[in-house]
Amino acid sequence: MPTITTTIEFIKDDPKFIVGSKGCEKPYYIIPVEGGAVNPLTDKVTNMAYERHVVGVRDIREAQPAPTLERNGFILSAHKSMAIASHDSESIDRYKQETQELLRKVFPDAEEVVTWDFRRRLNKKTTPSQVRLDTFRFEDELHIEGPAKGAHDATLDSGPAIVQRHLTPEMRLKYLKEGAEEYRFRIVNTWRPLNQPALQDNPLAFCDYTSVSHGDLLPCDRVYPHFVGEIFMLRHSPAQEWYWVSHQTPDEVTVMIMYDTKPGDGGARLCPHVSVQNPLADPESSPRESIETRSIVVSRVKA
After folding, report:
1. pTM for the full predicted model
2. From what superkingdom does this record's organism come (predicted)?
3. Is the bond preceding residue 65 a cis peptide, omega within 30 degrees?
4. pLDDT higher than threshold 50 for residue 132
């Protein structure tokens, strides 16, 4: 299938976000919580705006050479799940276990894989997510969210905080204690559509790490009730190279690097991504439904 021409949503390149400018601000977004102090219908929840740019998005199935995790930040992997037929707590736990097994195959050097986050999304308007204040995790993994806004990924500063937060105490003692042998920490995103026989509506697009410059990345605070996280929002650049997966099925998983402490010379440290409109989609196709996970992969640094 040829390259599609579509629009991608980027953060608006606002002068107020330039460090050192008069009245400089850091971009932020307050996560609305049901019953919380911020009402997204009446209160200001962000100082960001978005803009769309026309972009050519290449089909990964036709890419030569095929993208790699180490260089480009993403791959497509065949993987059949036995836990997607139902949406209940038991199925979610099984899906996390499946994800950990998949990532142990993708990363043969992995000593530990911890899948801490599960999101199910549907391309329609939904209510705000629930947040549990004592653990900073989404309280209800059964909650179905809408697509995330704007091309984005984790930041180099947020990665260590995520590792600290989601490793078990025993793992932190083994892998993070002072004087311990060095380990490599990767944060990995997996994304799978649920649409049968294949996805048409709003596929995921991902940006080749080798085409992203430091100036394209704008740190943004995500403000939860009990802590502040940080992500990169992506500015548009004509140099960026974007990919998608045509007719992606539920038996195919996109694996993306979100953070890597030892990426090697020029290796991928992140993979900006966002959903896009598919101009080739049947107007009657079902709304995109998908599952994504976030995991920590711990490996021993090679001598």
Report:
1. 0.91
2. Eukaryota
3. yes
4. no
Residue ranges of alpha helices (H) inside the chain are: 89-106, 158-166, 169-176
- 29-36, long-range: CB within 8 Å, 24+ apart, which pairs? 29/220, 29/221, 29/222, 29/223, 30/223, 31/128, 31/129, 31/131, 31/222, 31/223, 31/224, 31/225, 32/128, 33/128, 33/129, 33/130, 33/131, 33/225, 34/127, 34/128, 34/130, 36/225
pLDDT tens-place string over residues 46-90 = 999 999 999 999 999 999 999 999 999 999 999 999 999 899 999
Contacts of 50 (CB under 8 A, 6+ apart): 9, 10, 11, 12, 149, 150
φ and ψ of 140, to 5 deg: -125, 100
Q: How confident is the model at residue 266 (pLDDT cuts 50, 70, 90)?
A: confident
